[in-house]
Write a structure and sequence with these properties.
Elements (H helix, E strand, L loop, with lengths): L21 H4 L36 H13 L4 E5 L2 H9 L7 E5 L4 H14 L2 E5 L4 H8 L5 E5 L11 H11 L4 E5 L17 E5 L13 E5 L2 H14 L5 H11 L2 H22 L3 E2 L9 H7 L6 E4 L4 H10 L4 E2 L9 E3 L11 H6 L7 E4 L5 H15 L3 E3 L2 E3 L2
Helix pairs in contact: 2-8, 5-6, 11-13
Bound molecules: pyridoxal-5'-phosphate (PLP) and the ligand N[C@@H](CCSC[C@H](N)C(=O)O)C(=O)O.
Length: about 400
């Protein structure tokens, strides 16, 4: 297990130097390229000659190290590791589990994560408890099993429920000092939330989403502060060969530099969309709305509401008609892209959760999820209103739009 970390020839701003605001840090990178290239070079190579710092790209590559150092900096971590996808991150992390181990996780979480946990439950004898992570008492009851791992999303995908990250992390460590608290921070990105600062041991993100921002690559980033954990995770990555390829590292490095401006615009647009839908009479799940049941909790641990929201329409057929009528809102899975997307989780991102389980977990079949991009807000609002009207979900009367 005592693997040597591939060293970096190109350290970015070390943690002990002056820290700037995050929107400055995200664009500030340094490298010691021999020609002082402004953009760090792409080492598109599988092998390295001689007995130097790097030998083989599966084990380490300067472009990957450069990205990992930058990500560690913006995720408030001492070590970040770049892998092929967000699911690749969870795969690496759950390799720590042994048969008989207990995992406590949410009753609302990304369908792919649910699928992987289900696989571990049925093939590796891992015991998985899906509980309402908004309720600390419910989580504490499950912690009586002394879980080896707690896996949290906040906000959850797609119901946008909020988990008290600090309180759960403390309770999990009190129940089992070896418990590894893992937070999937994909919905927030490091711009809006830093779970390591709230007591989590491991944070990961699907970099396919906000970190890259353009839906042109797949990647996952894992971040930790504990060097032993880092070593263990690096061991799995090198052993299984899921480190991110150099070109994708390079692309992700380019994408992440605009994270702050993208998120700012996406959030501003999201707030307008959420307020508009609420004014039409829909019940909207978005922590930027005062009506969100955990509004205060969310703002106590995050710096923004994010750009994903969901709402119900009352019927699956109506939801289908709505999504088919939009022009600007692309019907697509995923989120975090500069373009606005619309989807029905039960038929798309969460279709791998069987209908009985979806029902038991109160995941509404008619739920529509909106992932808001950086377009002009008036165009987004108009397009959505037109689609709602054409689908028969809203009518215009007495100078206002409302549900019929
Ligand atoms: C919250 C969340 N975590 C993880 C993932 C997995 O990421 P990837 O698609 O990059 O494997 C997704 C979506 O795919 C997601 O929505
Ligand atoms: N067919 C895919 C679905 C990917 S969903 C992507 C994203 N996390 C989202 O929430 O939209 C699969 O089976 O994994």
């Amino acid at each position: 297990m005592a693997e040597r970390f591939p060293p970096s020839p190109a350290p970015t701003s070390p943690r002990n130097e002056k820290r700037y605001a995050l929107d400055t840090e995200v664009v500030s990178t340094e490298n010691n390229d021999q020609y002082s290239a402004s953009s760090a070079p792409l080492y598109q190579t599988a092998t390295f000659k001689g007995m130097g710092e790097y030998d083989y790209t599966r084990s380490g590559n300067p472009t990957r190290t450069y990205l990992e150092r930058h990500m560690a900096k913006i995720m408030n971590a001492s070590r970040a590791l770049a892998v092929t996808t967000g699911m690749g991150s969870l795969d690496v992390i759950t390799r720590m589990l042994k048969p008989g181990d207990h995992v406590v996780t949410g009753d609302d979480l990304y369908g792919g994560s649910n699928r992987l946990l289900n696989y571990l439950r049925t093939t590796n004898n891992v015991v998985v408890h899906h509980v309402d992570t908004t309720n600390v008492e419910t989580v504490k009851s499950a912690l009586a099993e002394k879980p080896a791992m707690v896996l949290l999303e906040s906000p959850t995908n797609p119901l946008i429920k909020i988990a008290p990250l600090k309180e759960i992390s403390e309770a999990a460590h009190a129940a089992n000092s070896n418990c590894v608290v893992v937070v999937d921070n994909t919905m927030m990105s490091p711009m809006l939330q830093n779970p390591l600062d709230l007591g989590a041991d491991i944070v990961y993100e699907s970099a396919t989403k906000y970190l890259s921002g353009h839906h042109d690559l797949m990647a996952g980033i894992i971040a930790v502060n504990d060097s032993k954990l880092a070593e263990q995770l690096y061991f799995y990555i090198n052993s299984t060969g899921c480190g991110l390829a150099p070109f994708d590292c390079w692309l992700l490095m380019r994408g992440v530099k605009t994270l702050a401006v993208r998120i700012e615009k996406q959030q501003r647009n999201s707030q307008l969309v959420a307020e508009m839908l609420e004014s039409y009479g829909f019940s909207v799940n978005y922590p930027g709305l005062k009506s969100h049941p955990q509004y205060d909790l969310h703002w106590s641990q995050a710096r923004g509401a994010g750009a994903v929201l969901s709402f119900e329409t009352g019927s699956v057929e109506l939801s289908e008609r709505i999504i088919e009528q939009t022009r600007l809102w692309g019907i697509s899975v995923s989120f975090g892209c500069v373009n606005s997307l619309i989807s029905m989780p039960c038929k798309m991102s969460h279709a791998s959760i069987d209908p009985e389980t979806r029902k038991a977990r109160a995941l509404p079949e008619d739920l529509i999820r909106l992932c808001v991009g950086i377009e002009n807000p008036n165009d987004l609002l108009d397009d959505l209103t037109l689609a709602l009207m054409k689908a028969g979900a809203v009518v215009y009367s007495d100078g206002t739009w409302r549900r019929p």
